[in-house]
Every structure is written in structure tokens, then in C-alpha cells.
Design brief:
252 residues; alpha+beta; seven-stranded antiparallel sheet; 4 helices
């Protein structure tokens, strides 16, 4: 091969070198292009993912910030069949809302509320909550009120909800430092609990837990899809209203 190359004229040698270089370049591009495509796709996904944040929003119960599930219903006696018996069908105040505790970041928010029955003593000898979730009792007998005032500010996602879990989306941008209107405004025991119920609900506690999620306003729909797997447009929501342009550098 080397002897054949030496026997070629100078123009032929140059043409052969150029062709070889072009072939090597094509092979390199074929190897790099899929990797670049994958990188672009992953970057888009990552860009949406990093816009989800949990540190800028807080749950409020009856106007007060709560730090965890154990704080919900803490100051109220919600016991069925105990000394302070709840009356089935009667709604008791329980306002659950969201506050944007960020100082400078507007957000779109989602609220997930879970309801269940708990059994056991309210406190142990050390004063800790000793109640545990009962898997045998029907959470659908616990009803959370989502009234007409709530529907003006929140969308209830029926597709994501179950007898135990209710999911709500705030319609508008929640501005930094602002609080939403309550999504849930009350709690009650269904009157159906008195009809042909097999399980014993006497001396059972009503219990709820809640989780707040949020996404930043820029590319909010993509971020919600990436983080939660939800097309917010299917819920009738337009989360582009709070989108802001990137700031223009000084002098441009």
C-alpha cells in the first residue's frame, strides 16, 4: 500500500489524502450526532425538572402555617364514637390553603390531601402521637368540602384522585409572599357510615395529611409534565400567564 502511494503522482496523492480526511470526518460526525441528540433531549428534560421546587411554598391550616402531617387536626378533637362524638353529616371547619413563602419567586402550585382513619391513643406516655392508620376502614366516609368559593381559585383533578387522595391545582400564579384561598374548607363524616357498615368505626380518629408541590412560572407546563406527569392543559389551566422574559443585560 505504501509502495502504491509513492508511485502516485502528487495531485493523486493530494486527492487521496483529502478523500481519506473527509471519510474520517463523516465517521466522527456519525458517532457524535446521536450523542448530541441525546444530550439535547436530556437537557430539555433536566431544564424542566430543575424548575420544580418544594422549598418556596408552605401548607396553611385555618390561616396558620403547619410544618408536618402531625400538626393537622392537632388542636381539634375529631374522634368518632368518643366523648366528643362527631355527628355524621355535620361539616366542621378545616381550611387548607397554600402560602408562597419565597421572597422573590412566583410559583404555580398543586395541593394533595390524603384522608384516612386512625386508631389508638392520641398520645403515648412520652406525649407523642400514638395513633396509627387503619387499612381496614373506608376513607370515602371522610368527606372534605370543596365549595363554590374553592372552585373559583382551584381545579379539582378527578383523574388523579381516589377515595383516599384528593388533588387540587391553583388556577393562577401564587405571588411571592402571598397566600391562596383555601382549597378545602371543611371536613365531615358521611351519613352513609350509619348504614350497613361492617367495620367498627367507634373510637376512630379522622386524620388527614397534605403535600404541597410547586413549579416556577417559566415553562411551567413543561415542568409540571416532567415532574408530575400531568398535562395541565387537560385540566383547563393556562399556566403561561406568569411567564417572564429573561432580563436584558445592561447596555443592550
Amino acid at each position: 500500500m505504501q509502495r502504491l502511494f509513492k508511485n502516485l503522482s502528487l495531485p493523486s496523492r493530494i486527492a487521496l489524502i483529502v478523500c481519506a480526511a473527509a471519510l474520517v470526518g463523516c465517521l466522527v460526525m456519525m458517532a457524535v450526532t446521536p450523542a448530541r441528540s441525546a444530550l439535547v433531549y436530556q437537557s430539555n428534560e433536566y431544564e424542566a425538572e430543575i424548575q420544580q421546587t418544594h422549598i418556596g411554598v408552605a401548607l396553611t391550616e385555618n390561616g396558620k402555617e403547619v410544618s408536618g402531617d402531625n400538626d393537622l387536626l392537632k388542636d381539634q378533637v375529631y374522634l368518632l364514637g368518643g366523648d366528643d362524638t362527631l355527628k355524621p353529616g355535620k361539616t366542621y371547619p378545616e381550611a387548607l390553603a397554600v402560602k408562597n413563602i419565597s421572597s422573590d419567586m412566583d410559583e404555580y402550585v398543586r395541593l394533595t390531601v390524603r384522608k384516612y382513619w386512625a386508631i389508638g391513643e392520641k398520645q403515648d406516655a412520652q406525649g407523642n402521637d400514638a395513633r396509627v392508620k387503619s387499612a381496614l376502614r373506608d376513607p370515602s366516609f371522610i368527606e372534605l368540602e370543596f365549595d363554590e368559593n374553592s372552585t373559583g381559585s382551584w381545579v379539582y383533578s378527578e383523574e388523579e384522585s381516589t377515595p383516599e387522595r384528593l388533588v387540587f391545582y391553583y388556577k393562577d400564579v401564587l405571588k411571592a409572599g402571598h397566600s391562596s384561598e383555601p382549597a378545602v374548607t371543611g371536613i365531615r363524616v358521611s351519613e352513609q357510615i350509619t348504614k350497613n357498615v361492617k367495620e367498627d368505626y367507634s373510637k376512630c380518629w379522622l386524620a388527614i395529611s397534605a403535600q404541597v408541590d410547586s413549579v416556577q412560572v417559566n415553562n411551567a407546563a413543561d415542568a409540571a409534565k416532567s415532574a408530575w406527569g400531568v398535562d395541565i392543559a387537560d385540566l383547563g389551566l393556562d399556566w403561561s400567564a406568569g411567564m417572564t422574559d429573561e432580563p436584558t443585560p445592561a447596555g443592550e
